[in-house]
Amino acid sequence: MIVDLSHVFHEGMPGVRFKSETGETVELTAHIHPYMTHAQSSRHYDGKASFEISDVAFQSSVGTKMDAPRHRFEGADDIASIELHRLVLEGVVIDARHARAAQQVGWTDLPFPTHVAGRAVLVNFGWDRHWGTETYRSHPYVSREVVTRLCEAGIALFGVDCSNVDSTQDAERPAHTCFLRQRILIVENLTGLARLHGQSFRFFSIPLKAQDAAAFPVRAFAEVRE
Questions:
Q1: Taking the CB of residue 49, how many other CB atoms lie within 10 A of it?
Q2: Which strands form 215-217's sheet, in the order they lie side by side?
Q3: How many angstroms separate the CA atoms of 180 and 183, rounded?
Q4: Angle of CA points 170, 189, 54, to nearest 5°
Q5: Which residues are CB-contacts of 23 (< 8 A; sequence separation ≥ 6)?
Q6: 6 vs 1, 53, 203, CA distance in Å?
Q7: What is the reported pTM?
Q8: CA 55, CA 221: separation in Å to the nearest integer?
Q9: Which residues neighbour 129 within 8 Å (Cβ) at sequence distance 6 or greater?
Q10: Does residue 181 contact residue 209 with C-beta atoms inside 8 Å?
Q11: Would you give the end-to-end CA distance of the chain in angstroms?
């Protein structure tokens, strides 16, 4: 069974907000429209065929997306340098659906399994239900202790079903710092993790092989074993 864990990538989708140098609030998003329509292309084929070509523009940190080490550390590995075996991993889902908005969740609050080395650890806050709302921006997050212990345990990837693995109130961004320093990949804005509880699965998170990209949208999904 294949479980889709990605939000739809669409025109005007919600994204990260930040203040520009002029103090203006800016929101990352995507723009998708036809570059060439069927009607426009038909003349090139004497009316015997037609094709649509899409024009897609977006910032790399939108939608269900992966952060490479370069996202946090200048000159570090970019998206294109991530080997394929790091994008297909044994996975485990951690149930954190009890978490509240903006709550820091500690190690003792979460049912981590004993063996997580080399695996994709995905935390299900159930926050995907708030996608596209203001509540989505007030997401829970894991504590520094959780981050440190997972780094020490040697996980390969850390994923969440909210917009950021860190509290946006913490300027040090400890999760991004610890994970990406150790080349532990990060995937944010997952959805549908509830379908993986109690399941044995492989986790796939596949970006384009984009050179010099610090982050990039992915098609994330799980292959569930019978």
A1: 10
A2: 2-4, 219-224, 201-206, 88-95, 120-124, 157-160, 185-188, 65-67, 215-217
A3: 5
A4: 125
A5: none
A6: 16, 23, 12
A7: 0.96
A8: 25
A9: none
A10: no
A11: 8
Phi, then psi, of 98 in degrees rounded to 5: -80, -10
Question: How far, in Å, CA of 184 to CA of 179, rounded?
Answer: 5
151-170 per-position pLDDT tens digit: 999 999 999 999 999 999 99
Query: Residues 152, 124: contact at Cβ < 8 Å?
Result: no
Q: Domains plus CATH for the chain? A: 2-10+60-224 (3.50.30.50), 17-58 (no CATH)
8 Å CB contact between 76 and 70: yes
Cα–Cα separations (whole angstroms), residue 119 to 52, 67, 90, 183: 40, 17, 5, 13
Report whether 54 contacts 98 (CB < 8 A). Answer: no
Neighbours of 224 (CB within 10 A): 15
pLDDT in tens, 51-104: 999 999 999 999 999 999 999 999 999 999 999 999 999 999 999 999 999 999
Three-state SS annotation for the chain: CEEECECCCCCCCCECEEECCCCCEEECCEEEEEEECHHHHHHHHCCCCCCCEEEEEECCCECCEEECHHHCCCCCCCHHHCCHHHCEEEEEEEECCCCCCCCEECHHHCCCCCCCCCCEEEEECCHHHHCCCHHHHCCCEECHHHHHHHHHHCCCEEEECCCCCCCCCCCCCHHHHHHHHCCCEEEECECCHHHHCCCCEEEEEECCCCCCCCEEECEEEEEECC
